[in-house]
Structure formats: structure tokens, C-alpha cells
Design a protein that fits this description.
Radius of gyration of chain B: 14 Å
Mean pLDDT of chain A: 93
Shape of chain B: globular
Oligomer: heterodimer
Number of strands of chain B: 12
Mean pLDDT of chain B: 93
Number of helices of chain A: 0
Helix content of chain B: under 10%
Order of helices and strands of chain B: EEEEEEEEEEEE
Distance between the termini of chain A: 36 Å
Largest sheet of chain A: 7 strands, mixed
Helix content of chain A: under 10%
Largest sheet of chain B: 6 strands, mixed
Low-confidence stretches of chain A: none
Shape of chain A: globular
Distance between the termini of chain B: 41 Å
Structural class of chain A: mainly beta
Low-confidence stretches of chain B: none
Number of helices of chain B: 0
Structural class of chain B: mainly beta
Strand content of chain B: over 45%
């Protein structure tokens, strides 16, 4: 199993550009989530999904969209990038919303100029 | 809202010695889980240990153990026989089922001196 994979590993954007961060898992997990990690801080939840077709907002959802059309994939879209979105982004998955062991991807470092 | 506080931004320990990292949390929930995650320079998040709030016995995983004080809302991590590979950021995190999210503390950077 590859576990949780994220692409790209690094990305530089200009203010106003849009892009999609990809996340996939091959563990048949129902629950997937996106976090951001700013320098010197812990991770904060952006959006999560408890199954295909179901998404919900986390702590810091503004400026991001998600969708969950399949169990395996959970892309994160930045609609109009801003410098405040410069961060490291982590995708995570777990068996279901009550299974509390979350598996994390390797992260994507995003810089918005 | 749940909050997690790690009051030690940095800690240092001599190789082979023992170090304790502190974590306190605030919640009105009674059924929840607590975690310690390790983040080495590779930035991969690695689960170190977890504790179910309903269990009175403190969790242990090899050289890692916790001191869980539910009434005091305290959850410290003890690392015994510290190794150079233990050097990393350590994050305390809180989870409850209805919340559907992990809440992280700000992290403690652990340095291990040879």
C-alpha cells in the first residue's frame, strides 16, 4: 500500500492564481481531511469528508474548496491564491470518522508570491 | 471549542537521558482521545502514542509513555533513553468523535545532544 499520497511536493503561485492540491489514499478509508501548518504552529483543519459525496468545513475553510467524488481522492482547490495561504498542506485519512488513528501524507509546501 | 496548549517551545535532552514534554487541554467533552505526533525534518507526521480518555491506565509504547491526568486535563509525554533520532517537533493533539477533527497544540521542538 502506498498509504496517503500528495502531489505536488512543492508549488509556487502568484497572487490570484488557482490550483488544486491532490490527495489520494489506497486504504479504503472513509474519512479524509486537509490541514495547513504555518511556521511555528500546529496543524489546523481546513475541510474534511466522512465519505464520498460528503464534505464539511473545518477551522480555517475560507479560500478553499473541496469535493469527494470517490473514496480514494480528496482534492483541495485554492480559488484565488493569496500570500496568507503560504503554508505546508497535509492530507490525512482514517478508516472512518470514529477511528481516531489518522494517517498523514508527506505534505505540500505552497508559496504564494 | 477545544484547545490544546504546549507551554514548552523548545526542550533539550542529553542522549540516553529522560525528558518529559508537557501538554494541557481544555474541553467539556468526557469521551475523547489524546495523541502525541512526531514531526522530524522530513515533515512526515508520525503517530507516537495515543490515549483513550476512558482508560485510566497510562499508554506506553516502548521508550514512550504518557502521564494522563484527566481531572487536571494534562497529558505529558515521557521519552526514556533518548536517542538522536528522537530529535523532532512533537505535537500534542485532541480528538472527539462528534467534532470529527484533530486539534493540535503549537508543538515542542526537542533537541537531543550527543
Amino acid at each position: 500500500n502506498a498509504g496517503v499520497t500528495q502531489t505536488p511536493k512543492f508549488q509556487v503561485l502568484k497572487t490570484g492564481q488557482s490550483m488544486t492540491l491532490q490527495c489520494a489514499q489506497d486504504m479504503n478509508h472513509e474519512y479524509m481531511s486537509w490541514y495547513r501548518q504555518d511556521p511555528g504552529m500546529g496543524l489546523r483543519l481546513i475541510h474534511y469528508s466522512v465519505g464520498a459525496g460528503i464534505t464539511d468545513q473545518g477551522e480555517v475553510p475560507n479560500g478553499y474548496n473541496v469535493s469527494r467524488s470517490t473514496t480514494e481522492d480528496f482534492p483541495l482547490r485554492l480559488l484565488s491564491a493569496a500570500p496568507s495561504q503560504t503554508s505546508v498542506y497535509f492530507c490525512a485519512s482514517s478508516r472512518d470518522g470514529t477511528d481516531n488513528e489518522q494517517f498523514f501524507g508527506p505534505g505540500t509546501r505552497l508559496t504564494v508570491l | 471549542a477545544q484547545t490544546v496548549t504546549q507551554s514548552q517551545p523548545e526542550m533539550s535532552v542529553q542522549e540516553a537521558e529522560t525528558v518529559t514534554l508537557s501538554c494541557t487541554y481544555d474541553t467539556s467533552e468526557s469521551d475523547y482521545y489524546l495523541f502525541w505526533y512526531k514531526q522530524p525534518p522530513s515533515r512526515q507526521m508520525i503517530l507516537v502514542i495515543r490515549q483513550e480518555a476512558y482508560k485510566q491506565q497510562n499508554a506506553t509504547e516502548n521508550r514512550f509513555s504518557v502521564n494522563f491526568q484527566k481531572a487536571a486535563k494534562s497529558f505529558s509525554l515521557k521519552i526514556s533513553d533518548s536517542q538522536l533520532g528522537d530529535a523532532a517537533m512533537y505535537f500534542c493533539a485532541f480528538f472527539y468523535n462528534a467534532g470529527n477533527m484533530l486539534t493540535f497544540g503549537g508543538g515542542t521542538r526537542l533537541m537531543v545532544k550527543p
